[in-house]
């Protein structure tokens, strides 16, 4: 068979441009300034794609609480809704309706007295939701003080030294004195008696964390509210509680239903959680819910006329995508109570089993075992002198595992640990592979005459970036 040249149609050459992508112009592209000219989209994509290969593998990132796996159907819905702006409730009324349904579902899950009249909203994440909860506490306290004819210029907020960095930001940005309960001995979070001792007439509230980022433990919310009840009986001080349930508020309802931490306790005024953690949504979405309308002062809610509609809004931002809210509703619809229970139970099972296997290796001692939030921390035993947790973290990174090593906050800065967060998508098989790599690293680490790395070498991971003192970790 003879191949013939195609006829020339007078419109130029019919030859195809088939240059390899790596030989295309431009040869050099500035990194910190806009290029002078546009480029082929395939070239731009390839350049960005190749640089991102230097990132760690999100599925092997055991530092983050954030969801790194989602069903294809959830991803498809998110792609379909990527262009929808959550603030345009008049233009996207059904997306707004799904947000409202999610708020009511959470209100029922957290035992609000009247879920139909509960107020709440979606946010970009649990940090924003926590700040909204803090703002409501401050505003309620200020209203009460002014009604009583008392000064309202020195608010304070009581919390454990283990709180996430967003609470330090709240205190700094909104001019509230933070009062921290330090860690003591084997108490790695807020203690009820210690918290109440810091309360006075200027205390806007106490923050209780359900699922500490340091070790996954639940703070004693019921004990705290009981002590605050006693404080009110003795002194008349009425101090509300905000529960930072960034992780635990989407775990305890399914795995610890008998645990009273939520709106069943009358002193709990508000709760925040992270939809993009154990809510199982890709980032970023959070939720803030108040027990009733009285807990959220009216003067914090704005009615905005926007694009032809009246939009009630309480948020620290304006425009944001609706994709994550839609994905949250999809997960609630898709999994239901039993599905969430099964997913969270599997995560806890993986965490407790892996924690036990690591403890059995010998050089390590558990600080927590993953029996509450599926998160656990472990330390190198004191008698081991040749390596530190920072050496172990570096050895695991060689195999792609991102396991953070860090020190605890005051008064336990002497305690350095590794922490593993077990999320949906990190199953028993991956846990066994991690354990195999940890075992393989042990002979080399044991041969070290002295530690090679310290906390200064672990600057790539930090629990936070406080302006006043070394702080801790990420949501």
Automatic annotation (TrEMBL):
Keywords: Decarboxylase, Lyase, Pyridoxal phosphate. Residues 466-475 have a biased composition (Basic residues). It catalyses: L-glutamate + H(+) = 4-aminobutanoate + CO2. It comes from the Bacteria. Transmembrane segments: none annotated. Its EC number is 4.1.1.15. The keyword Lyase applies. The keyword Lyase applies. SUPFAM superfamilies: PLP-dependent transferases (SSF53383). NCBIfam families: Glu-decarb-GAD. Belongs to the group II decarboxylase family. This is Glutamate decarboxylase. It comes from Actinomadura keratinilytica.
């Amino acid at each position: 068979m003879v191949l013939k040249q195609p006829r020339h149609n007078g419109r130029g050459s019919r030859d195809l441009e088939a240059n390899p992508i790596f030989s295309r112009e431009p040869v050099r592209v500035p990194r910190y300034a806009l290029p002078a000219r546009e480029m082929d989209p395939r070239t731009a994509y390839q350049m960005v794609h190749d640089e991102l290969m230097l990132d760690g593998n999100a599925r092997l990132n055991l530092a983050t609480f954030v969801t790194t796996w989602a069903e294809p159907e959830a991803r498809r819905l998110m792609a379909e809704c990527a262009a929808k702006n959550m603030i345009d409730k008049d233009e996207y009324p059904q997306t707004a309706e799904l947000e409202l349904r999610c708020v009511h579902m959470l209100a029922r899950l957290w035992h609000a007295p009247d879920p139909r009249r509960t107020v709440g909203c979606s946010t970009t994440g649990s940090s924003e939701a926590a700040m909204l909860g803090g703002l409501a506490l401050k505003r309620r306290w200020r209203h009460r003080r002014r009604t009583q004819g008392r000064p309202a210029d020195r608010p304070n907020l009581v919390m454990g030294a283990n709180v996430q960095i967003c609470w330090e930001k709240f205190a700094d940005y909104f001019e509230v004195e933070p009062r921290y309960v330090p860690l003591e001995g084997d108490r790695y979070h807020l203690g009820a008696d210690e918290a109440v001792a810091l309360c006075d007439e200027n205390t806007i509230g106490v923050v209780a964390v359900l699922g500490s980022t340091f070790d996954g433990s639940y703070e004693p919310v019921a004990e705290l509210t009981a002590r605050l009840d006693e404080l009110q009986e003795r002194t008349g001080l009425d101090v509300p509680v905000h529960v930072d349930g960034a992780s635990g508020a989407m775990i305890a309802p399914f795995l610890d239903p008998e645990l009273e931490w939520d709106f069943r306790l009358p002193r709990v005024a508000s709760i925040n959680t992270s939809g993009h953690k154990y809510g199982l949504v890709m980032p970023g979405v959070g939720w803030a819910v108040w027990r009733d309308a009285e807990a959220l002062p009216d003067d914090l809610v704005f009615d905005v006329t926007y694009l032809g509609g009246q939009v009630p809004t309480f948020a620290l931002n304006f425009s944001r995508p609706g994709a994550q809210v839609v994905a949250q509703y999809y997960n609630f619809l898709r999994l239901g109570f039993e599905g969430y229970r099964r997913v969270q139970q599997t995560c806890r099972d993986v965490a407790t089993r892996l924690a036990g296997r690591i403890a059995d290796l010998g050089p390590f001692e558990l600080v927590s075992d993953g029996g509450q939030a599926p998160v656990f921390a472990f330390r190198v035993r004191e008698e081991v002198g040749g390596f530190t947790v920072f050496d172990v973290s570096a050895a695991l990174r060689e195999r792609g595992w991102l396991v953070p090593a860090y020190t605890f906050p005051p008064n336990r800065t002497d305690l350095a640990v590794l922490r593993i967060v077990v999320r949906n998508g990190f199953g028993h098989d991956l846990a066994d592979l991690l354990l195999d790599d940890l075992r393989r690293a042990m002979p080399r680490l044991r041969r070290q005459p002295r530690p090679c790395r310290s906390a200064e070498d672990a600057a790539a991971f930090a629990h936070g970036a406080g302006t006043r003192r070394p702080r801790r970790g990420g949501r």
